[in-house]
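Can't paste images in this forum, so I'm doing it all in text. The chain is below; anyone willing to post the predicted structure tokens underneath?
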Amino acid sequence: MANRQHFINREVSWLHFNERVLQEAMDKNNPLIERLKFLGIFSNNRDEFFRVRVATVKRMLLMEKSKNEKLKYNPRMVLDEILSIVEEQEKKFTNTFYELRQALKDENILFLDEAHLTEDQGKFVAQYFHNEVRPLLFPIMLKNLKSPDFLHNNSVYLAIVLSDTTGQMEDDYALIMVPSNQLSRFVQIPSKEKQHCVMMLDDVMRYAMGEIFAPFGFNSFKAYTVKFTRDAELDMDNDISKSFVELMSESVKKRERGLPVRFVYDKEMPQLLLNRLIKKLNISEIDNLRGGGKYHNFKDFMSFPKLGSRNLIYPKIKPLNHIKLPQNSSIFNAIRKEDILLHYPYQSFQYLVDLLREAAIDPKVRAIKMTFYRAARDSNVINALINAARNGKNVTVFLEIQARFDEEANIFWAGKLRESGVKIIKTLPGFKVHAKLMLIRRKENGNNIYYANLSTGNFNESTAKVYTDDSLLTARQEIAREVNMLFHLFESPYNPPRFKHLLVAPYDLRNKYSQLINTEIRNAKAGKEAWIKLKLNNLVDKKIIRKLYSASKAGVKIDIVCRGICVLIPQLPGISENIKVISIVDKFLEHSRIQVFANAGDPKFYISSADWMVRNFDHRFEVSTPIYNDELKKEIMDLLNIHLSDNVKARHVNKEPLNAYLNNKSKAAVRSQEEIYRYLKKLHKKK
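Text version of the structure:
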């Protein structure tokens, strides 16, 4: 039996994952601007981590001691370890940023601040401030602040000391939000030929602060950056007179007034001002206060402008055509012939939009059903569904209102779809629908024929350009009819059907995977071929991990590619000696979930929307679909083996030294994402 020491804490594991993102920013083999963007991704990840995971630990810290003892969990120790790791990562982050600034300077891309402008540049900045920035600024005098509720979560504010050098007025203090949600954080200002000068929006405001406050008699202004992070958990009331959408809308608004979990400030800030801010903002001693540099909210660096030579960014890849989906031909005809597997972003998400467009005007199509978890901001998929409804098709959508940080967008889209005649299936309180499903019903020769799409990722054309996902198109009626059963289940979840092909959470996904692992254990003990290959985003569920440990002890060889959290510890003597875990972080975010089981020489293949976490097995509707087509089985195995042979971007997981690369100088370099592109290009090359 695996003990507690055979698992790593999930919060610590997540921080290890984000360290791998930071490694990409530190990697000198990556283009300079891409390294800067990885700093932005790291920072954005960390903000979300504090809003969700650290907020949860803090809530546990405030619980009664007896409740934590029952959980066998010491939130204070966990929080201390988190903050210690974050502090070390922050040092690497800061060093990397200054290194990148110097490297960009060598490429004639200069960061200028308010103290280093020429006369002409100063005039430009003052004019830009007057025309573009000033109309968006609404200062709050600190002495008038009654409540911190107005502070926008994770936004940057300038805390300003207002002085009168003549001594006629006492110092005063103000807060102004940096409007980076409405303007670019990076202002390009006039420069010499071949130079690109960039100024942070914060510094533009510092330079022209007198335009706001000089009329009140002040003539000296010093501004210090602060950032306030709130608990992102939604607290919902139980008012039965309100709809679930109303309750969610109110809860999202309350989130903006959530308890503080982190307060970051410029360490050069005078202690008097810092003390006043802490008091006014109700920052407690258990909140994470951290003094930092002049700039915060590095998530904006994800949108750093493309300046300088082309070699400073990744070259664009051209999405590959799928040989079974020729242009100007019916996608329905192609799917009817055989199963088709798409791989984003190597192949275009546009195939899905084209399928919906064809379905919208096809006279044989009677109905379209889809699930949505995260839709794109300007979603062509949703617009295609609206068009289908206008063309008289019966369109049904389950749009998950509870998708974290996308609640407002999904509430908006639900209203838009409903206005267009689309039927919206009500959200199921307590259970998120995370499965990615599309179903099209056609009338062919008097019979209902179903076409299905089951994907590992969202129906989101924006993320499909940077997330790697697998998407199955099938007209196998045994699969498609079970997808139809699922949509009926969403409308009536208290009478679940029995599925013969799909593995469905929260009903049988956990048990079916356990049975598959048990089969490998029996086969290993019987001397038959026994192995497991897994690709996941997160591996957290301890019950299923204990099952993997049992398989390892029985002699089952287990290879795991896990991008994010992994609480399993590989290669522990007598526990997990037969388990190997790697993580791949590269220019695309690895998002596909694939599971293959040897099955004594007749392997079983699955692609899934679900990670192996408690929430996916027990608290969400998830689907894992079998792959029956032999060509596609070979394709999936080839892709998995390419991942497992990566020795450029793959790291060891939960082994010392932490996040060590799998560099093997005796072998040719294999960068899996580039190798997969070449593999698919060759596979789909016209003969």
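The CA atoms of residues 98 and 265 lie 18 Å apart. The chain has 19 helices and 26 strands.
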